[in-house]
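Handout, tutorial session.
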Amino acid sequence: MRIFKKILLFLLISGLLFIFFKKEFFLDISGQTLKKFSSYSDIVLNEVYLSGRINESKINIIDAIDVSIGELLVNINVKNIRQNLNKLSWVKESSVYLLPMGKLEIEIYEYIPFSRYIDESNTIYLINKDGIKFKKIEDNRFENLFLLYGKDALLNINELPLIINKLNSFNFKVTKIERIDSRRWNIFFKQDFFIKLPNFNALNSLDALYKLDNNIDYNNLTFIDLRIQDRVSLKYKSVD
């Protein structure tokens, strides 16, 4: 009986050792096979394509993507990549696709800056034509864009693109636009004068300038007042 128990114990231990080593052998072999298989298939990331970047930092984009060549595709979360990209200052929207042969394709659509906006605390932002503040900037950045300020300026910004386009026909370079009392605009030019626009029909009021353009002396001009319909008032600097 004692010998029989020893034989059973020996067989049990031998069986367990066999199962253990067989498992380790299987895991080792399967791991090697997976590595070899991934080298010849599209289950790992081989290439990353990026389009649409103009102003956003390359470093910021790489950090947002946060993937490595050779990484298993099953570990790549396309939704997270898109969310991270959309948090970047310049990025308005993005699209992320995993394509065959281990390719990751990324398209970003950046905000188009319309002007520099100064808020009540004198903080300066880049904004698009819809008035969205998408990036805080320093005072000396993007000086080619006009400054926009004044109470409720962003609420009425949709009026400005057409106004600016019409002013461009006069070769006036807009440098600043001020919202006055939440009602109307004063528009300042590089030529060192400004225009007072009316509360209503601001765009149409500029038509009066077409009739007078050749008769206006812009030297020493302080402002052109278009606030009263069908009347153009000119104010000049005092000259000694």
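The second record follows below. Compare its token runs with those of the first.
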Amino acid sequence: MFAKLPGPEAALLLTTYDFTHVNKLFCFNLVTLAAEKGQEQPFASYVSLTSYLLQHAHLSQRVSHYATLNLMAFRLLVEDPVLCKRICSDESKTPVRLCRQRSPYLPLVKGERVMATAVLDTVVDGISHNLRRRLDVGLYTLLVGIMLRITSYLSRSRTRLTYHWADFFRALLHLVRFLTTYAADLKDLPQIELLLDHVVNLVALSLSTGEAFLPSPAAYDDLFYKVVEAGDVLVKFKETYGLGSRGSNSIGTLISVSAHYKEMLKTGAGKDAKARGAILTSVEVADVIKQGYETLSIQAKEGLDTWERYREADERTLLKKVARVAVADGRGLVGGSR
């Protein structure tokens, strides 16, 4: 059943993308237009549909193409600083129904929410539900790129966003583990290096500027805990893809943070635990992380919060494929109405 969805009306998504690409007034109205009585806010409906497409993108190229098309529209919207500010502000609060048909499930949010949190849920879910050895690198680059652009805005504007950030970083580091485990299948895929840089630089940006946008010290501590926990995987990740030989990423930042805390655990609290014949608890590790801020120096690469603006010419091949799908759906729609 799901393989046949969405219906042929989805051809309209190509028009939505076209307007998003060329018409700033359309973009502004899409993001700001209020809901009519008894209806969803238009952008909330668009985000909702995208979440359904992403959870089922593995079923067919057709669904995957439409999901990617909507993500390109997302990218265009969050690259506009005025629209991104609106999406990340309390002014954008509205109920959003997101797809929850496949596990793992993100926390259920009832009632109104800041629109940026719904967009983040959509792309985080997209990362969790489309992992396979024949990875769609273009799709994942878009997903992580949208996360990077929103995080960059939050960091620069010092906007603290209440969100389940633990799931955000868990998905990113799970992606690192997947890329490391299946490197033999993935390392020669086109554009894989851009995806690797996006993932590494997003985590490094969060480590270096998280105090500016994470809602609480506990959320910041949790990020460090996750990076320390993934330390061995990060070292293997770096070696497997030769990340150390490229200056376009900050893998050294991630590994140095992990090494800093592992050394503290060995020489400080770790010694105390050994003396007691005990293994460190998660609470004790969290305490070490807080203590470690005093001696930690994060040497992050400059420009982590910058990114290249969208250029349609870079996506021409994909857009031709989407256009063929949309034309076929349009013909079916017209033929079925006769």
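Points raised in discussion: Strands lie at 94-95, 112-113.
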